[in-house]
Design goal:
about 15% strand; 6 helices; about 50% helix; about 130 residues
């Protein structure tokens, strides 16, 4: 089996903790004409809330945890990367695949090898 590394020097990740100003910065970049990709986890939460699959309490406490949500975040992050991989001018993404690995480690998932295999050496962003 061969593994192909995908790199796009026009795709930049804006990463940081909650409330650090990522979305505000990306909104300003969008106003300046740059393309940006919304945060996958935020989109998933909005979908879940709109489908009334989680309660307001779970929304407040980010109750979407564990392997199922992490797998969904990883899947969507990969789809997002592939969708914007061909960007021919600078484009910005609100968090990315490495953030999924950070989340998995934060909540203590015992096996993060699948996420690590995607993060390490397969899909690369401009740093």
């Amino acid at each position: 089996m061969s593994v192909r590394t995908l790199t796009n020097l026009n795709l930049f990740v804006v990463s940081g903790g909650p409330g650090a100003g990522k979305t505000t910065t990306l909104d300003e970049l969008a106003k300046a004409g740059f393309q940006f990709v919304p945060e996958v986890a935020r989109l998933i939460m909005q979908e879940q809330i709109s489908q009334e699959q989680i309660s307001r309490r779970e929304e407040r406490f980010l109750g979407l945890t564990g392997r199922p949500i992490t797998e969904l975040m990883l899947q969507r992050s990969i789809e997002s990367f592939k969708k914007y991989y061909g960007a021919t001018k600078p484009s910005f993404t609100d968090r990315a695949i490495p953030d999924t690995l950070g989340y998995a480690r934060l909540i203590g998932l015992p096996d993060t090898s699948r996420i690590e295999s995607v993060v390490i050496g397969r899909l690369n962003y401009q740093s």
